[in-house]
């Protein structure tokens, strides 16, 4: 591998005398080139510069550079000798990696990949694989065009080459550019081919396998590692799916070998970010295998399995499969295991999986049997925000089932939850109000929340700039206001709270609006508070919202309008602002919730005669005649009441006419 | 005298003593005949007027051509000569032209040899004086031309000497200053790259596979 131009500057002081060998004059590239190399991490550059200055460079550094020099100047034989000596050094330490880099070794190694000689390729790959974990070297190698060469080597008939090439790609894949190149140069289908290994090899213990069968396993493992690395890019995940990775991955999951399972599950959970993969986990019956691996003691494997479950459990059928396979037991066990507490990624993954799985009634019951609520409450003192978010989410699901609310209270969960309301981590702030929302429906819990000033803290979350946080906080307010002792006084005591709430009606997010309307409906039960929000212009704002087509918003809006009518001139104002006719239109919706709340609104509005006229003109009677026969008690009453008022007005008009 | 057809007895014998199948052996015989005829035709007359001496096997020139062109074995002359010299010629030994049996058996080692056979072959090639040890001087001879002369070098052989020391350190397991057969065996088992550490003397596996495939598909 001879190059004629490998000498840049001749430095006299380079090279240390190595004992026992003749003095060797080292030709090193001038120090200015290494300092100007395009590296991003300035701190490591500073460290390196200090190291050079302090001349604490170990002799290994010079030895390695000498070997690279021989590779450059030597023929194939010399290259092989130098390569085999190079492999003796520990190439994972930075000094040695730098040694190779600074003498132009990287270009040389990448060139080796282009030769047709198997031994050179193998030697070169072995070195590249060991040095590519270094960030700078990774970038440099990618820039030198290593990726297309490596992708080409994936099709080489020699299996050693395939394995080393795949493992090197796995290391390089930590950079976005490499991932893109790999895809562009057709690397993904080739890597997927590597996963194609006979099921028999996957399930037979290693002692019972032949040497070449073991090699197939190694190939599959290397392929999985490389694909796992590649899967950080969304486009790569799409490409993987298109090229048919799913059945191969499903087969790989059946393995009993830990070293194959870890990259396979790691790859699966990364891909599970895509809904297509989430569905595939269900249809390809991967759940059972995932749960089997979840039971494994290896912490990393547990973490990745939990992450996969977390991502695919949004589908109800998958949740059932997980429950039936015994996933919940394993997850609770992992959460209860105190030795896991320090492993934050594991805890976050496990609690996240519990959260998503708890979304079914049957699951919540099963979790109760396992004492999950107590375990989760104990975890509320964790320092890690990710863990806390997931724990809160899980508790929110569990708390939908009334007996759990008291369990949370008796385990001392409420003070901790309220404490977390002071946190700034937004996902956490989305989940905690949901727990409190459920707990507030229980009297004992509500009084505890109230004592600890929880309602004020929830209310202040309405100021948060995240829409989801605002929504969930507003949702939590409704039961709080409803069930708190002396709720009217309490609400009034929060300075600026009511104004803040009414102002939120200007938001453009429908979820926020729905939640705020629901809150306003409960606030409006208290006369004094209703007066205050009317002063803040709630009627105008509600009227503006009336033209919406969102059923969820319509349902809440109707109720809000209904209860806001009970003050002063609000009814009249609603009518003047043209809220009536659109409201009548709501009755055309198919959603029974919308019907109920609209009927309520119309009923309350109908106590003002002009409103009745408007309603009647808008053709409300035909709708009410239908809903009057509804099985929904509230709807029935409201419709009846509304019709009653309309008829009273009609009768009164008749009487006046008759008198005249 | 070269046979026109491959005797059944010879075929049986070779089938049992090489790694080739019968059809491969037959194809190799055809190739052998072709090479010998071509070699005969190319042999120059030694004395003017005298008939050209009969060539009754593969001679060194033909051998060199085959290694170069068919097996893509481009290597130092030293090595190629050693391969020629150490080629097993059967009971009669000698250093003359290769008859078919010797040819077939040698090729079997080269193209499909077991690890043991390949190791033995390489060691024999490198052991220049056939004393069972590869010494420093022998290594130097073999590696003499492996480094390009650099313009700034005061002593061009210094690099080669250094390289020799490196290899010796790696391969001399029993630390006696030279590489014995056992040393070589152990070193190569540890690091397969070192099999041809002193020069390429085997066709690459890829080349061998291609050759063998073409051999039987041509029929």
Largest sheet of chain B: 2 strands, antiparallel
Rg of chain A, rounded, reads 35 Å
Number of helical segments of chain A?
44
Kindly, what is the distance between the CA atoms of the first and last residues of chain A, rounded to a whole number of angstroms?
Answer: 117 Å
Helix fraction bin of chain B? 55-70%
- Briefly, what CATH class of the domain at 537-659 in chain A? Mainly Alpha
Main interface: chain pair and counts: A-B, 33 and 30 residues
Structural class of chain A: mainly alpha
Secondary-structure content class of chain B: mainly alpha
Helix content of chain A: over 70%
Average pLDDT level of chain A: 86
Q: What's the story with the biggest beta sheet of chain A?
A: none
Q: What oligomeric state best describes the polypeptide chains here?
A: heterodimer
Brief sketch in words of this structure:
With 660 residues, chain A is mainly α. Chain A has a domain at 537-659: Alpha Horseshoe (Leucine-rich Repeat Variant), CATH 1.25.10. Chain A has 44 helices and no strands.
């Amino acid at each position: 591998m001879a190059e004629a131009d490998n000498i840049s500057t001749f430095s006299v002081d380079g090279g240390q005398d190595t004992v026992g060998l003749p003095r060797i004059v080292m030709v090193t590239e001038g120090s200015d080139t290494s300092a100007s190399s395009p590296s991003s991490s300035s701190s490591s550059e500073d460290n390196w510069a200090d190291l050079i200055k302090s001349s604490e460079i170990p002799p290994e550094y010079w030895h390695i550079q000498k070997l690279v020099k021989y590779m450059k100047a030597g023929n194939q034989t010399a290259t092989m000798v130098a390569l085999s000596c190079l492999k003796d050094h520990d190439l994972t330490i930075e000094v040695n990696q730098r040694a190779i880099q600074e003498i132009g070794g990287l270009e040389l190694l990448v060139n080796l990949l282009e030769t047709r000689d198997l031994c050179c390729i193998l030697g070169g790959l072995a070195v590249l694989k060991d040095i590519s974990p270094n960030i700078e070297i990774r970038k440099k190698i990618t820039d030198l065009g290593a990726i297309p060469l490596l992708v080409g080597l994936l099709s080489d008939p020699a299996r050693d080459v395939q394995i080393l090439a795949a493992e090197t790609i796995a290391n390089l894949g930590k950079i976005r550019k490499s991932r893109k190149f790999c895809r562009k140069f057709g690397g993904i289908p080739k890597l997927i081919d590597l996963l194609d290994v006979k099921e028999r090899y996957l399930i037979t213990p290693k002692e019972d396998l032949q040497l070449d069968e073991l090699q197939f396993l190694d190939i599959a493992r290397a392929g999985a590692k490389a694909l796992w690395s590649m899967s950080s890019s969304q486009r790569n995940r799409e490409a993987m799916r298109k090229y048919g990775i799913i059945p191969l991955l499903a087969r790989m999951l059946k393995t009993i070998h830990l070293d194959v399972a870890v990259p396979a599950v790691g790859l699966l959970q990364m891909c599970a970010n895509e809904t297509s993969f989430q569905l595939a986990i269900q249809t390809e019956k991967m759940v059972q295998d995932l749960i089997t691996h979840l039971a494994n003691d290896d912490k990393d494997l547990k973490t990745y399995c939990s992450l996969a479950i977390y991502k695919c459990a949004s589908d109800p059928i998958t949740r059932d499969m997980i429950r039936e396979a015994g996933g919940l037991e394993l997850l609770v066990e992992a959460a209860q295991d105190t030795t896991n507490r320090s492993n934050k990624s594991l805890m976050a993954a496990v609690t996240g999986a519990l959260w998503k799985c708890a979304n079914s009634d049957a699951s919540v019951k099963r979790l109760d049997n396992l004492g999950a609520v107590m375990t989760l409450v104990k975890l509320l003192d964790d320092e890690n925000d990710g863990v806390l978010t997931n724990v809160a989410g899980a508790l929110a699901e569990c708390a939908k089932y009334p007996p759990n609310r008291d369990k949370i209270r008796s385990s001392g969960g409420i003070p901790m939850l309220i404490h977390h309301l002071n946190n700034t981590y937004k996902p956490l702030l989305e989940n905690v109000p949901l727990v409190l929302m459920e707990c507030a429906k229980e009297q004992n819990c509500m009084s505890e929340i109230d004592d600890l000033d929880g309602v004020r803290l929830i209310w202040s979350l309405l100021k948060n700039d995240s829409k989801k946080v605002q929504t969930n906080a507003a949702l939590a307010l409704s039961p709080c206001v409803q069930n708190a002792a002396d709720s009217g006084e309490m609400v009034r005591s929060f300075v600026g709270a009511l104004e803040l709430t009414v102002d939120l009606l200007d938001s453009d997010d429908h979820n926020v609006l729905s939640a705020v309307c629901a809150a306003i409906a409960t606030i409006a039960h208290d006369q004094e508070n209703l007066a205050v929000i009317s002063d803040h212009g709630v009627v105008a704002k509600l009227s503006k919202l009336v033209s919406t087509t969102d059923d969820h918003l319509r349902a809440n809006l109707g109720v809000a309008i209904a209860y806001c009518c009970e003050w002063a001139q609000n009814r009249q104002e609603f009518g003047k602002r043209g809220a009536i006719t659109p409201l009548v239109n709501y009755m055309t919706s198919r959603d029974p919730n919308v019907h109920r709340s609209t009927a309520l609104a119309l009923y309350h509005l109908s106590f003002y005669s002009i409103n009745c006229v408007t309603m009647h003109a808008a053709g409300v009677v035909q709708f009410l005649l239908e809903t009057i026969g509804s099985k929904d008690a509230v709807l029935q009453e409201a419709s009846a009441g509304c019709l009653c008022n309309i008829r009273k007005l009609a009768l009164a008009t008749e009487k006046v006419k008759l008198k005249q | 005298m070269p046979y026109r057809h491959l005797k059944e007895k010879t075929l049986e014998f070779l089938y049992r003593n090489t790694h080739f199948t019968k059809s491969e052996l037959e194809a190799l015989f055809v190739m052998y005949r072709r090479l010998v005829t071509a070699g005969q035709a190319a042999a120059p007359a030694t004395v003017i007027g005298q008939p050209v001496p009969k060539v009754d096997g593969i001679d060194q020139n033909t051998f060199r051509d085959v290694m170069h062109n068919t097996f893509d074995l481009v290597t130092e002359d030293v090595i190629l000569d050693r391969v020629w010299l150490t080629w097993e010629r059967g009971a009669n030994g000698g250093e003359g032209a290769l008859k078919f049996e010797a040819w077939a058996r040698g090729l079997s080692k080269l193209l499909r040899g077991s690890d043991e056979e390949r190791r033995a072959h390489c060691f024999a090639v490198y052991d220049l004086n056939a004393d069972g040890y590869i010494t420093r001087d022998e290594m130097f001879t073999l590696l003499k031309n492996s480094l390009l002369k650099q313009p700034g070098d005061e002593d061009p052989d210094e690099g080669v000497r250094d390289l020799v020391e490196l290899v010796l350190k790696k391969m001399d397991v029993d630390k006696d200053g030279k590489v014995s057969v056992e040393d070589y065996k152990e070193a190569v088992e540890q690091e397969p790259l070192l099999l041809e550490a002193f020069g390429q003397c085997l066709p690459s596996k890829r080349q061998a596979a291609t050759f063998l495939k073409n051999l039987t598909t041509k029929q």
